[in-house]
Design brief:
It is a single chain. By secondary structure, the chain is mostly helical. It has four domains: 37-195, no CATH class; 213-277 and 279-312, no CATH class; 319-396 and 537-682, no CATH class; 402-530, no CATH class. Helix content is 58%, strand content 4%. It has helices at residues 7-16, 37-51, 56-69, 77-87, 92-125, 133-140, 147-153, 156-163, 169-175, 181-190, 199-217, 245-253, 261-277, 315-331, 340-349, 353-364, 368-380, 402-412, 416-429, 434-441, 478-499, 512-523, 526-529, 538-568, 574-592, 594-597, 610-613, 618-635, 640-647, 655-663, 670-681; strands spanning 220-222, 240-242, 291-293, 298-301, 304-305, 444-448, 454-456, 465-469. The strands form three sheets. Strands 3-4-5 form a three-stranded antiparallel beta sheet, with no helix packed on it. Strands 6-8-7 form a three-stranded mixed beta sheet. A two-stranded antiparallel ribbon has the order 1-2. The two termini are 27 Å apart. The model is unreliable at 1-14 and 16-29 (pLDDT under 50). It comes from Porphyromonas cangingivalis. This is Peptidase family M3. Residues 1-23 form the signal peptide.
Length: 683
């Protein structure tokens, strides 16, 4: 359940994709409209007179959209009207030809720009020599920064916006059920130009995201250098864990350690709290030369306490604040989605914020939460603690010794190439035919990752998706393997939804929750792929998914509320933002978790690194869990490859219609609540 590396590219898209301004923004941030309402009305009348009333909807929607995007350098008001009269296509056959031309060339542009971007960012994402300043400059360079500017200059953007209407989410919801595949493809073409973001602003966002990503990718805690008040060490000397992914996964893995597991979990928890409130000493980050007691927050050089070990100076929140400042500048170019919250939820997830929050609240407040918590407490033989939000004991992997698993995965996958060579056999074990497995795997490459691991899809048919995972010189450990199988699930989705969907404009999935769904399905089979007889059944899956939902839904609410706070306090300092994040995390904890896991005013929900690099991405994981569970229940007794290929070639229609087509029901918490209630009744 790692970030889908819709990467800086996708997050940049998330932040940029709908930008042009409304009254919700301050007047001084709103670009002045060049084409007046009167000129729009006159142009609409002229087109109706030329093409007839039958084209009224397309004419009105197209002319208004072009007017939102047209600026002075594009031509005069008279040029605007002449353009609309000359470039509007009323003949269905000619419109189809225009669509095919645009689609073909957009695929060419998107695909090749993506390949360039991937190569430029390779030093940042793949293990190798130490990064140089020039590596960072190339990595931050947005090769597509001027593409839209050029497409507006040569009027291709205006031709697209004029002839393919943009539909709101409400309209897609109301009409989409009756649309043909071609109509859906046309609607997606209408989504292509709903913004006109200046190239310098695109570049600024790319630079900010790259800086944040590098900050997180290099934020390692030297676990072998952690000590308690007696100087005891509990972790391997060479264990370096990235925040938060590595810390969380190490905490989860220790549920199978009956000797020192709880001690190590409590120590990791202390580390996390220092990262969140920025009381962590700056000197202990990525530094193997000192030891650190996270309980007392003392730092040692040898036997001496360092009295000058100052805290990290709110760097975490300065990065988040910079991201907000650039997002707010983008707001001024967004008529349809004038805040980052709307771009992330309404535009990218294509779900209404109120609906998303309601789904989360329904599960978080359901009485069955207490029953699941009581079940976990009985299994652990102790009262629950706040970090038990990551309880991992429902899965078979938690009862298998991780040292043994790591030895096996290191032997099996000593290099990235070994994993690459095994990809078709993994698919065969999951039920694909050898021929089809080789075909899919041929479009996936494996790279050793600097960070925690991610999956990068291609943006044109025939190009490769990339699986990035951590593999040390000792081979792949179990954590890396578990992540790699998750990312491989992303890659399979990316490959199918790019290469086997009937229209390029429909390639992909409705939102990243859907690609998370397949990644979860793969990840749940990681032990099976190693030859272990999985003890997981649907009851265990129900409990595990429910608890994962319980964890990530609260985290998602923190993410959303932090951005709501930022919009209410646009002039905040990094220190003020830090305090606000802590307050929000405490509030959400007290509302949904304190009565279940104990603790009051806990800040744990703010540890997620996604908040710094993938703004308001976390809700996708929660939705992904719900989708994955619904799909998994549906797949009981059905062949995995057949259903995966059917579902993940539906393409990028809106989420609830995708789910309706895939499993016959919309996205809901009801299946998981029913499933976990049934599972508990058998315990």
């Amino acid at each position: 359940m790692r970030r889908v590396y819709l990467l800086l590219v996708t997050v940049t898209s998330l932040l940029l994709s709908a930008c042009t301004a409304t009254s919700k923004q301050k007047a001084d941030m709103t670009p002045e409209r060049f084409i007046s309402d009167a000129q729009v009305s006159g142009t609409i009348s002229a087109l109706k007179e030329k093409f007839g009333e039958a084209q009224t909807f397309r004419i009105e929607r197209g002319v208004k959209q072009v007017a939102l995007l047209w600026i002075e350098k594009d031509g005069s008001a008279e040029d605007f009207e002449k353009f609309c009269l000359d470039r509007f296509v009323d003949d269905p056959s000619a419109l189809g030809t225009l669509y095919e031309t645009l689609e073909r060339n957009f695929e060419t542009l998107n695909g090749h720009f993506h390949k360039i971007d991937s190569r430029l960012k390779m030093p940042l994402h793949v293990t190798g020599p130490a990064l140089t300043e020039v590596d960072m400059l190339f990595g931050a360079y947005d090769v597509k920064a001027h593409l839209d500017e050029d497409l507006f200059a040569n009027k291709i953007a205006f031709i697209t916006a004029l002839n393919f209407p943009h539909y709101t989410l409400a309209e897609k919801t109301a009409k989409g059920d009756s649309w043909s595949r071609q109509e859906w493809a046309y609607a997606r073409m209408g989504d292509r130009f709903i913004s006109r973001v200046p190239a310098d602003l695109r570049q600024a966002m790319s630079t900010s995201l790259t800086a944040n990503d590098s900050y997180i990718a290099d934020y390692n805690i030297m676990m072998g250098n952690l000590v308690d008040e007696k100087g005891n060490r509990f972790f391997p000397e060479d264990m370096h864990l990235i925040s938060h992914w590595g810390l969380r996964d190490e905490l989860k893995s220790n549920y199978s350690d009956s000797q020192q597991g709880l001690t190590k979990q409590r120590m990791i928890y202390e580390v996390m709290k220092h990262i969140i409130d920025q009381s962590i000493p700056q000197i202990v980050i990525n530094n193997n030369e000192v030891t650190w007691d996270p309980y007392t927050n003392k730092v040692y050089k040898g036997d001496e306490v360092l009295t000058d070990a100052t805290r990290e100076p709110d760097v975490r929140y300065a990065h988040l604040l910079e991201l907000f400042k650039i997002a707010r500048r983008l707001d001024a170019y967004s008529p349809h989605y004038p805040t980052q919250i709307e771009r992330a939820i309404d535009l990218e997830m294509e779900m209404m914020l109120d609906d998303v929050v309601k789904l989360f609240d329904t599960l978080l407040t359901h009485p069955v939460v207490k029953d699941v918590a009581a079940h976990i407490s009985r299994k652990l033989g102790r009262s629950l603690e706040p970090f038990d939000i990551w309880y991992d004991g429902f899965k078979a992997r938690s009862s298998v010794n991780e040292v043994k698993l790591s030895a096996e995965t290191a032997r099996k996958y000593p290099t990235p190439q070994a994993l690459k060579d095994d990809l078709p056999y993994i698919l065969i074990k999951l039920g694909w035919t050898p021929e089809r497995a080789r075909q899919i795997a041929s479009l996936i490459e494996v790279d050793p990752s600097r960070g925690a691991g991610h999956a990068m899809g291609s943006q044109m048919r025939g190009d490769v998706a990339r699986l990035r995972t951590r593999i040390s010189d000792k081979g792949m450990d179990y954590k890396g393997y578990n992540i790699a199988i998750h990312e491989f699930g992303h890659n399979v989705e990316q490959t199918l939804s790019m290469n086997d969907v009937d229209h390029y404009m429909l390639s992909g999935v409705p939102n990243t929750g859907f690609t998370e769904a397949l990644a979860f399905l793969f990840q749940a089979r990681d032990l099976q792929l190693l030859g272990y007889q999985s003890t997981d059944n649907l009851d265990a899956v129900s409990l595990d998914v429910f608890w994962s939902c319980y964890e990530i839904m609260g985290v998602s609410l923190v993410d959303i509320q932090v951005w709501q706070w930022l919009y209410a306090h646009p002039d905040a300092t990094a220190g003020e933002l830090r305090d606000a994040v802590l307050d929000i995390a405490k509030s959400v904890w007290n509302k949904y978790y304190a009565g279940i896991l104990g603790g009051k005013d806990e800040t744990l929900l703010a540890i997620y690194s996604h908040m710094l690099v993938y703004p308001i991405y976390l809700p996708n994981y929660a939705i992904g869990h719900l989708i994955s569970y619904q799909i998994q229940r549906y797949m009981e007794g059905r062949p995995l490859p057949t259903e995966v290929e059917r579902m993940f070639t539906i393409g990028r229609i809106i989420p609830n219609q995708w789910m309706q087509n895939a499993v016959g029901t919309p996205i809901s918490t009801t299946p998981i609540i029913e499933g976990v209630t049934e599972a508990l009744s058998k315990q």
